[in-house]
Design goal:
This protein is α+β, with helices and mostly antiparallel strands and about 725 residues long. The chain folds into four domains: about 100 residues, Sandwich (Jelly Rolls); about 300 residues, Glycosyltransferase; about 110 residues, Sandwich (Maltose phosphorylase, domain 3); about 130 residues, Galactose-binding domain-like (Jelly Rolls, Sandwich), CATH 2.60.120. The protein is built from 14 helices and 30 strands. Helix 2 packs across helix 14, helix 3 crosses helix 14 and helix 12 runs parallel beside helix 14.
């Protein structure tokens, strides 16, 4: 971790000292001012004052860049503190203070921070009359969308889109709180996502990344991830911006031919598990970059370079199997077991022929989950290339299982916040908003199957890989106009409704894998295929048939393409867990106590003192919480609330998502009328992140949760406690 932040610091200092080497695409006009807005929830009703210092916690509707604002009535000389409730912002933005004058006054923080809540520390005697937040962000609109019948994937798309937006400002950030670094690896999926989520104003940041001078000594492996089909060529396909390709051809050629040095086992391609087969990954990405360089050479007039590019590609291709194929998977001598990342990339870049796919699928991609949420993008794409989209979707839902139901509106740096690069341990300093998460891209481009075939979208395809999903709606904001696709399937038909921009040609494929038997295809209710092409609809052209699809081309307009036959309707994925519904009881005047005294704990490697008082568990913000840091979990720890009056309730939810592994090993719940005589109402085992406890309706004033289990590693936390009335 220390080495990681040292590298980040080096990059930041270099960026500050050499601004002239950067191609900065943004200016103040690129930042949108949303104005001041009301918070979603306040931990205290306003106006409010106390005779001792107190904290006001305010919840935003989503993760945002914002500046806290406050209106107070005060005597002169009082000091108010305000910041985000996200503790990671303290790495870059110290808590701001303002000293009051006398009377009614308004104050706003000078610097933006990020998070889903604001924290105000108010001095004794100060009356807080109103609070709001001033939101800003990159000036682009959310135009793309994705919904489907399985709420898990709809939520993932939405959170991924919000994540991408939070990582945009003056350049693409890895995260907006802890670092704000323009890594090329993180920037690759961020650039990709822009073309499926935002309007064309986002393309300015994409172009900035394409034209940014390369930094050969700064994570050169990330450059390989960007300089091939996933970065440069992806950008060109989406925009048709040939002028930018002309500008970057020579620097890219020099980097690949002269600058990049192979054979460094420490070259970064992913965090994830330590089993990184760098040798295989390096060959795959180099092959992809060289293959892409040849395509760029072809469109920019550098045909004279074909021979040397082809020679280098062939040098990799001709020796790849001999060096790395072990009979059932690819593996170099650097590692002792196969790596899902390396084998996925062998499929994606075309070095693994289709005959090897079943072995790779059976022996690696269904057995190993070493990749981080950054690199799982390439595992997902490899699975779908193999026709294993059902397993790809199952893997996605399983690996994001703790991010989907939580309150946080963005996706995290690590799966389960589990640092697995150098040590196996929970990483409290990992960001809960990290730009390298790809679900919005994967669901729109690969699952819905919408992607350009020709630079600039004059021709594109709709080749869905919906697997077990039964309905799907997607909007893709192409530079030619929005592409809207609505897919619905039943036991006897698979229907694709397409609204295609004028002046484009769409290749629409009816997926054979969705059928037990495909009998016919209709276009706007006219049968155009029944085992052979019949035609009969103007502007619809036969495009052939392969192992995966029956294809036809349509001009711009609205089309309804319907496949008839016996459709596969099996459902291997369990239904999504029910979301927490209902409105929790108003807890703003409750009193929280615990078996340990209120305290702070030293947060992360920086040893930042973070408050973990009992009251944090009922302030409405999942970033702030109660933690017992005196020892790891042991029987007898308790947390209690005095609800100040009798309440009727039958359900409580313990949210420990911020400290994910601190859920109670086991628990018992008691309630009381007087705080002295207690009635046992529930026992059970905690669940990672969110524990929902139900019981027969109770009427009581006091509620107590006791931790009854033992854990040798993790502490006990409650980051938010909600109590619900019977529905």
């Amino acid at each position: 971790m220390i080495r990681y932040f040292a590298l980040v610091l080096v990059f930041l200092l270099r960026a500050l000292l050499s601004q002239d080497a950067q191609v900065l695409a943004t200016s103040p006009s690129d930042i949108k001012d949303y104005g001041r807005r009301d918070y979603l929830r306040l931990s205290k009703p306003l106006p409010h004052q106390e005779d001792q210092p107190w904290r006001l916690v305010c919840t935003l509707p989503h993760n945002a860049h914002f500046q806290p604002w406050i209106e107070v009535e005060s005597e002169a000389g009082k000091v108010i503190h305000f910041n985000s409730t996200n503790p990671l912002v303290l790495y870059l933005t110290p808590t701001e203070t303002v000293t009051t004058g006398a009377g009614v006054q308004q104050h706003e923080a000078r610097n933006w921070v990020s998070g889903e809540g604001a924290s105000y520390l108010i001095p004794a005697g100060v009356i807080v009359r109103a609070v709001q937040y001033h939101e800003t962000g990159y000036d682009t609109e959310f135009v793309g969308s994705f919904t489907c019948n399985d709420a898990d994937y709809t939520v993932l798309w939405q959170k991924a889109a919000r994540t991408a937006y939070l990582c945009m400002r003056d350049h693409f950030y890895d995260c907006p709180d802890r670092e704000r670094v323009g890594f090329w690896g993180d920037g690759t999926p961020e650039l990709n996502t822009c073309f499926y989520v935002f309007d064309a104003k986002s393309h300015r940041l994409c172009k900035e990344l394409v034209l940014r001078p390369l930094e050969p000594k700064f994570y050169p492996g990330q450059h390989l991830e960007f300089l091939g089909s996933y970065g440069l060529w992806f950008y060109y396909l989406q925009t048709g911006d040939l002028d930018s390709l002309r500008k970057i051809y020579e620097p890219t050629r020099k980097f690949l031919f002269e600058t990049y040095k192979t054979g460094n086992r420490g070259t970064w391609f992913d965090w994830g598990k330590e089993v990184k087969d760098t040798a295989v990954l390096e060959n795959c990405f180099l092959f992809d970059c060289l293959s892409t360089l040849r395509k760029i050479a072809a469109v920019t007039g550098h045909e004279a370079d074909f021979a040397v590019i082809d020679e280098r590609c062939e040098a990799i291709r001709s020796t790849f199997d001999k060096k790395f194929w072990q009979g059932s998977y690819y593996m170099s001598p650097q590692v002792k077991e196969p790596d899902d990342r390396a084998n996925a990339m062998a499929v994606n870049c075309g070095l693994a022929d289709a005959a090897k796919w079943p072995a790779i699928y059976d022996n690696v991609l269904t057995k190993k989950t070493y990749s981080s949420c950054f690199f799982d993008r390439w595992v997902f794409e490899a699975l779908c290339a193999m026709g294993k989209q059902e397993y790809a979707l199952l893997r996605m839902a399983e690996r994001y299982r703790t991010m989907i139901p939580c309150r946080f509106t963005t996706l995290w740096e690590h799966y389960d916040r589990w640092w697995a690069s150098q040590i196996d341990a929970f990483d409290d300093a990992s960001s809960l908003n990290h730009g390298w998460n790809p679900p919005a891209l994967l669901l729109s481009q690969t699952v819905a199957g919408v992607s350009p075939d020709v630079p600039g979208w004059s021709t594109y395809h709709v080749l869905p890989k919906v697997a077990f999903l039964t309905s799907l709606q997607v909007v893709v904001p192409s530079i030619r106009g929005n592409v809207t696709v609505d897919i619905k399937k039943s036991a006897d038909d698979f229907q694709i409704t397409l609204d295609s921009p004028k002046g484009t040609t769409a290749i629409v494929g009816m997926p054979k894998s969705s059928f037990e038997q495909l009998d016919s295809i209709q276009v706007n209710d006219v049968t155009v295929w029944d085992g052979q092409w019949r035609g009969g609809v103007s502007s619809v052209v036969w495009q052939g048939e392969d192992a995966e699809y029956v294809k036809l081309a349509v001009a711009g307009g609205t089309w309804r393409v319907r496949g008839c036959g016996r459709v596969i309707m099996t459902q291997p994925k369990p239904a999504p867990l029910p979301s927490v519904t209902g409105t929790p009881l108003d807890n703003r005047d409750w009193i929280a106590t615990a078996s340990v005294a209120d305290s702070t704990f030293p947060f992360s490697g920086e040893k930042l003192p973070i408050d973990i008082a009992a009251a944090n568990a009922i302030d409405g913000d999942p970033w702030t919480g109660f933690r017992d840091m005196t020892a790891v979990q042991r029987p007898g720890q308790w947390f209690a609330v005095d609800m100040q009056r009798e309440q009727r309730f039958d359900r409580i939810v313990l949210d420990t998502t911020w400290a994910l592994f601190d859920s109670p090993v086991s628990y018992r719940v008691q309630c009381s009328q007087d705080g002295k005589t207690w009635l046992l109402v529930a026992t059970g085992k905690g669940q990672r992140g969110i524990t929902t406890i139900t019981f027969a309706p109770q009427v009581a004033r006091h509620l107590r949760i006791e931790q009854t289990g033992t854990d040798a590693t993790y502490h006990w936390s409650i980051y938010e406690l909600d109590v619900f009335a019977p529905r």
